[in-house]
Design a protein that fits this description.
single chain, 57% helix, five-stranded mixed sheet, YkcA/B-like_C, 629 residues, transmembrane helix, glycosyltransferase, 5 strands, mainly alpha, cell membrane
């Protein structure tokens, strides 16, 4: 993107390969700082998302549960995502012992690895400065600091997508088949992490290769086909395993309507996420939309109102949008400056790659009408970081010319203004920071626009000031995330910003029901003494997961996450009871959002238990002994 006096840029790929003396120590410092940030106090949030934590615990007790991602060691039902991220957390827990720290350790290490892979991808195109900027932006993004310390699947998803992007950068250089196979392999395992979300980066990756790979069009298409085959094989083996494995000897696929992983991918985790509509195991409020039937878009926990401004709104804005305006400016400027470059220009190829990632993923997140949570935006963070790093490095390289200086100045000014807006949404939290960032950003923008090319001796000071102005605000939120415990199915960044889950804080519980049983020592003692396949059963995972984590006993979550899945059926549950495989049934006044676990087989099972067994009060919780009499 370097600009000459009278022509748009051409690139010098060889420049990106030269190593400077400060590169290695700077990279090591960045990785060390990231490790400290992500590992500090790791485990302070306890089990984080108890839904996935219970599945990790189950995997440490039963290898079949590990393979399929079962919610309980008795293998009644899986979580509503593929198990790839659970595989790593379970292996860590089996190796070091099951605890909150050992469960979250792979997540934090994947965060450090993600920063390293992004550095390598950006450096390969625009040099070490671009790599360091990109890596620092990713590390300091609040939602990254949140999810790389959490047990949702997103940490592994981001790492695998970054591996795919790096492999594509290498494939574009030589059209190498091995690199394209790696692209497909990484995307295939990303599918086994979070299903169709993994494919949102594919248009950007494919476009960059089609435009810039140094071979003929037919060969480019053929290489992409090789990558597609690799992806299908990498994801398809597990799909085939699930379909071929006898359903009677594996857990039900949570979230699906027909016990099928493919239906889960296309339905609940696919079309229904984008178009909305109910799902058997849906984790959104009733009504299908992100805000539910009443007050759609009003609940911060579900992303706010769909539309072009969603990524900047009160729900998602502080997660990953701090440098999003700068990234979009850098992308537009870069594409314009490289419009006359050779077809194989590496900078333009990377802009297409990361820009395609950002635009497609951002558009889907902005307009999808199904369940979405603010933390999903962690998938945007690598693209934002890469575009900022490449645009800043290339513009700085051409700072003797007005156009790149203006690009840098506008990026800096917009970043300062947007940080002020985001910080002003929590005006009582560190109130001086928003003014400091705004003023420093404006000063740096002015210097960049009119004088940086004449100020060689203070260039380093300008760079440091720009880094402070651009990263101080998101870093402050990232540090806040590290310093404050986070829990629940949809944790959010920064100071408290309102209700999280149907009137409860994220991760909160209402008293009574299974949620109350988790903290009921009498119920805990009761299920610890049971020696059945399932010590107890209750409706939905809320409370069931917590009780399992507290006791180590196998607790059946009837209906999966929300209690809405058709598993087990009434006939299956009756057979389990007749065979002595379930000891207790824990009554429920529902410890989750209104509408969860109502109707379907959960209601049928509850009615059958109430009609055929005598309730007893155990520490204030209603419990039925299914083996009495």
């Amino acid at each position: 993107m370097t600009v000459t006096a009278d022509a748009p840029p051409s690139t010098a790929p060889a420049a990106a390969q030269r190593r400077v003396r400060w590169e290695r120590p700077a990279l090591l410092a960045l990785l060390a700082a990231t490790a400290v940030l992500y590992l500090w106090g790791l485990g302070s949030s306890g089990w984080a998302n108890e839904y996935y934590a219970a599945a990790v615990q189950a995997g440490t007790q039963n290898w079949t549960a590990w393979l399929f991602g079962s919610l309980d060691p008795g293998n009644s039902i899986t979580v509503d995502k593929p198990p790839a991220s659970l595989w790593l957390m379970v292996l860590s827990a089996r190796l070091f012992g099951f605890s909150a720290f050992t469960m979250l350790l792979p997540q934090a290490l994947m965060g450090v690895a993600s920063v390293g892979v992004l550095f390598a991808a950006a450096r390969r195109v625009s040099g070490p400065a671009a790599g360091l900027i990109a890596g620092a932006v990713l590390a300091a993004t609040p939602v990254a600091a949140l999810m790389f310390r959490f047990n949702n699947p997103d940490a592994l998803l981001v790492l695998l997508l970054l591996v795919a992007a790096y492999a594509m950068v290498r494939a574009i250089e030589t059209a190498g088949t091995r690199w394209m196979v790696l692209v497909g392999c990484a995307l295939g395992f990303a599918f086994l992490t979070k299903m169709l979300q993994a494919f949102l980066v594919m248009p950007g990756l494919a476009l960059a290769f089609l435009v810039a790979a140094p071979v003929g069009l037919g060969q480019r298409i053929g290489k992409l086909a090789v990558g597609a085959v690799s992806m299908i094989v990498s994801a398809g083996w597990f799909l085939a395993l699930v379909e071929l494995w006898p359903a009677s000897s594996r857990p039900y696929i949570g979230g699906s309507t027909d016990n099928s992983l493919l239906q889960l991918a296309l339905g609940y985790n696919g079309i229904q996420r984008i178009a909305g509509g109910g799902a058997p195991g849906g984790d959104g409020p009733p009504g299908g939309g992100p805000g539910g039937a009443a007050g759609r878009g009003a609940n911060l926990f579900f992303g706010g109102e769909p539309g072009i401004g969603r990524l900047f709104g009160h729900s998602m804005g502080v997660e990953a949008s701090w440098l999003l305006p700068a990234a979009l400016i850098g992308l537009a400027a870069g594409v314009w400056f490289t419009r006359r470059a050779a077809r194989t220009d590496s900078v333009r190829a990377s802009l297409l790659l990361w820009g395609g990632w950002l635009v497609v993923t951002g558009a889907v997140f902005s307009f999808m009408d199904g369940t979405i949570h603010p933390y999903y935006t962690v998938a945007l963070a690598p693209a934002v970081a890469a575009l900022v790093g490449i645009a800043a490095a290339e513009s700085w390289r051409g700072r003797r010319h007005l156009a790149p200086r203006l690009v840098l100045a506008v990026m800096m000014a917009v970043t300062g203004v947007w940080a002020f807006v985001l910080l002003n949404r929590t005006p009582d939290w560190v109130p001086w920071l928003r003014w400091a960032v705004l003023i420093l950003g404006m000063v740096v923008a002015l210097v960049l626009a009119v004088g940086v090319h004449r100020m060689r001796r203070v260039a380093a000071a300008v760079v440091i000031a720009a880094a402070l102005a651009g990263l101080a605000a998101p870093t402050a939120f990232a540090v806040y995330n590290v310093a404050h415990p986070a829990s629940g199915p949809g944790t959010m960044s920064g100071p408290a910003r309102g209700d999280g889950f149907g009137g409860m804080p994220p991760g909160g519980r209402r008293p009574g029901g299974p949620g109350g049983a988790m903290d009921n020592s009498a119920v805990q003692d009761l299920v610890r003494g049971a020696d059945s396949r399932w010590a107890a059963a209750s409706i939905g995972s809320m409370g069931a997961a917590g009780l399992q984590l507290q006791t180590g006993a196998s607790i059946m979550a009837i209906g999966g996450f929300t209690g809405g899945d058709d598993s087990p059926t009434l006939a299956q549950f009756q057979r389990y009871v007749a065979d002595g495989e379930v000891r207790y049934f824990i009554g429920s006044d529902r410890g989750g959002p209104p509408g969860f676990g109502r109707g379907g087989t959960a209601a049928e099972i509850t009615a059958w238990v109430q009609q055929n067994f005598t309730p007893m009060q155990v520490g204030g919780t209603t419990v039925y002994d299914l083996q009495s009499g």
